[in-house]
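$ run holo --ligand "magnesium ion" --emit tokens
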Amino acid sequence: MSRSFLFVPADSERKLEKTESIDADALILDLEDAVTPAARPAARQLAASYLQGKHNIWVRINPIDTDDALPDLEAVMPSAPAGIVLPKPRSAADAVILAKHLDGFEEQHGIEPGSTRIMALCTEHPAALFSLDGYIGATSRLYGLSWGAEDLAAAVGASSNRDENGNWLPQYELARSLCLFAAAAAEVAAVDTVFTDFRDLDGLLRYARKARRDGFNGMLAIHPAQVDVINAAFEPTAEEIEYAERIIRLFDENPGSGTVGLDGKMVDRPHLIQAQRLLQAYRK
Ligand code: COA
Ligand code: MG
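-- output --
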């Protein structure tokens, strides 16, 4: 599973070149909001040639209900991207529409059927918040769900989505939580949204650590400096690994008990599952 996904505007040759020296687990070449409509045709060609022979490169296309979505796919699919990031889906049905297009492109270009993954930005459309369970079993291409607060704030006419301290307002925390639970229900990755203040790396580290604590598997990045911080934040700490190993040892030593005491606290099955998941992710 990827910890860091770095957005790179696909119209910027300079930024595309820069990626050679960046340690992101995955890149997302953006054809949507980071690119103006006028620059889009050239950006499609740049993205297509950049993709050739590379791994773990995703492409964010335009929303599936716009006239740009198909030309985006037509341009990049011959180069077999790892996956497509789908912005502003109205519901999981939009991911299913995308999956059907991918079926056709894979066949046309001799790409292994089903190998192109999908990541849906599942909260960008207000209506989408009311049917997030639709992602359960929607398509086996679904890699994960991520979320965004900018389009949502614009959609409701809000002047901000953050409080005076820069924290998400409760309504956007709600969207974030819904994304997290929808991803867990659909058994796919949960990827936290961008941290836009790209000079504040201490703030990013705190945010990303919280994201992992909350159960997110990775995070979106917009600037090269964010990548190492995110990668580090999504690695478990030495203390966490040690604590997880102690929990597993304790259950091994007490095979008949569903619940045991550790450092004066009750530990039961959910804790065992958490410990197993942490060690599994760590050992990958
Ligand atoms: N990918 C690759 N390289 C990047 C990059 C990115 N996302 N963001 C910045 N760089 C490069 C810059 O080109 C610069 O290199 P250079 O000096 O050799 O040209 C270097 O990293 C440092 O960049 P910096 O000057 O600190 O930032 P900036 O002002 O040039 O760019 C942003 C700031 C936000 C415009 C830029 O980071 C960006 O385009 N991010 C992605 C935006 C995006 O895709 N948004 C859509 C999803 S929300
Ligand atoms: Mg957006």
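-- notes --
The chain has two domains: 4-233, 238-283.
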